[in-house]
Amino acid sequence: MTEPGTIERAITGSGLVPPGTRGITLLSGGADSVGLLSGLAGLLGPRAITALHVNYGLRSDSGRDEATCREVTERLGVELSVVRAGEREGNLHDWARTIRYGEAERIAGRLELDWIAVGHTRTDLVETVLYRLASSPGTRALRAMPARRGRIVRPLLGLGRDEVRGEVARAGLPFVDDPSNLDPSFARARIRTGVMPGLATVNPAFERNVARTIEELEEEAAFLESEGSSLIQEAPDSRPFISAEAIAGAAPAVARHGLRLLVEQATGRTVPVPIEEATLVRRLAARPEGGSADPGSGVMIEVGSGVVLAEQVGPATIEPERPTGRLPIPGALGWDGWLFGAEGIGGGEPAGGPGTATLDRSRLGERVEVRAWRPGDRIRPAGMEGSRKVADLMAEKRLPRPRRPEWPVVESGGEIAWVPGVAVSETFRAGRATADPILLTAEPPGPVGDGAGT
Known about the structure:
- The chain is of the alpha+beta class.
- The protein has helices at about 5-15, 30-45, 60-75, 90-110, 120-135, 160-170, 185-200, 205-230, 245-250, 250-265, 275-285, 360-365, 390-395, and strands spanning about 25, 50-55, 80-85, 115, 150, 150-155, 230-235, 240-245, 290-295, 300-305, 305-310, 325-330, 330-335, 340-345, 355-360, 365-370, 380, 390, 410, 415-420, 425, 435-445.
- A hairpin with an 8-residue loop joins strand 17 (about 380) and strand 18.
- The protein is globular and about 75 Å long.
- The two termini are about 30 Å apart.
């Protein structure tokens, strides 16, 4: 029996692709995706893998990428599906992401596959972290690329890009390079060609050091958010607050996380709370007369009468409100990194799960709207007579407070029909007598790559 290679060992060590499972791999033709496909085929056998290549037609040589993918899959004995994207619509990355993950989900559902694998490496993780360090304040910006998000898995985060490329070259497998990855007009490309090589001269192991640091930050952030969340209480009018005594007595990092969560819960959006403002709030909380702090973006934190409150007092200047998207029935929609789908299922039995809902088309109409959750939203949960606050249902489902402001809800005629992973409306849900049931699906944000392929 042949000894597993570097890529196979990395995939096994990730624990993301258990033996006996089946899945689909996104194949751009680049070395990372080719290496991932080769490793998966070697571990699980070629019949357990399906490859998907999307030809976006963005470059004059896009046909070369497709030809490379066909050659690779033929040599490995893996089935290949090729999709041609058609005319570009809107933001390039959202458009490309909607197509590739939409197609991958459709194939995965039809073939009852377990996972969707993408070839991001440790190098991609570090590039993303450096980009976010430059563009966004706070440690949250560093928590960039989880190994698993829903059905999407990244089994190669334990390897650097050069390691994967070297293994692919030694195996004699063909691959192509996307020239846009080195185009200096893209910020990520400038990091790739300038910052990364410079840091490597300081310490060749800097990638590993950054990746290990991110692992520690993830663990620490989860703890701090849990501690900060425990500071928040809810007033009788459902308004969130923190007692002045609690904020003054909390450790600075816990207080800062608690204040950020308070602002997000009160305003429904992400607003950084700088260290200076968090320190000021703690000082004000220790004074009988209280006071106010301004973290920016039209938000004010008020301290008085023994409590700390946050409220929107002006226009948002840091993060605009997420737009409303329209999902046609049937059809697909990319919204804020999520991928929504709607399809008729006739009399078939749809797959269950938190990312699916079976609704009555006669009540939905020709389209539904997707928007972000807002404080005060209510829904009539399936099986109930009256309505409940979506925020309460989110809490019962243990949806972390930091994620709630960006969580989607699906509306029809101004009424909430579905909150993915939280609740389905009694008004819209399909029953046994429903003549035209519609399956709605919602896939959380997938990885954001430099090019349109992997």
